[in-house]
Write a structure and sequence with these properties.
By secondary structure, this protein is an all-alpha fold. The chain has one domain: Ferritin (Up-down Bundle). It has four helices and no strands. It is elongated, with a radius of gyration of 15 Å.
Length: about 140
């Protein structure tokens, strides 16, 4: 029987790979009058997400799991508004999943995994806030 925490960590890795590629392509593809403001934001967040994937993979491997190399489906979007809407949804999904991981890690008294995801959750909430502001 597979361990629920290890499965969730692998889902988190797949999600982090997904958004790092998604945001980097958006950084490349974004055009229009508002794009200069957003272009670097996409790139910065893409790098954050790849760092998250690395940290989660290191933790998963330490716990005896094999980190995935496959992202969840990448959704770039067409217009800048579409891109940001997809990104906001991705961040909301991550926040929900990471809260679940934190709760499971706390139940298991795995403070290292709990602390790692509390740190990542802080970043994800900041990303959600930035995407929310962009849609106003």
């Amino acid at each position: 029987m597979a361990d629920e925490l290890l499965e969730l960590l692998n889902k988190a890795i797949a999600r982090e790979i997904q958004v790092s590629v998604q945001y980097m392509w958006q950084h490349i593809m974004v055009m229009g009058m508002k794009s200069p403001e957003v272009k670097d934001l996409f790139q910065d967040i893409a790098v954050d997400e790849m760092k998250h994937a690395e940290k989660i993979a290191e933790r998963l491997f330490y716990l005896g799991g094999i980190p995935t190399t496959k992202p969840t489906p990448i959704v770039v979007g067409g217009s800048l508004e579409d891109m940001v809407k997809h990104d906001l949804k991705a961040e909301e999904e991550a926040i929900e999943m990471y809260r679940k991981i934190i709760a499971i890690a706390a139940q298991r008294e795995d403070s290292t995994t709990r602390l790692l995801f509390e740190e990542i959750l802080t970043d994800e909430e900041e990303h959600k806030h930035l995407f929310t502001i962009l849609l106003k």
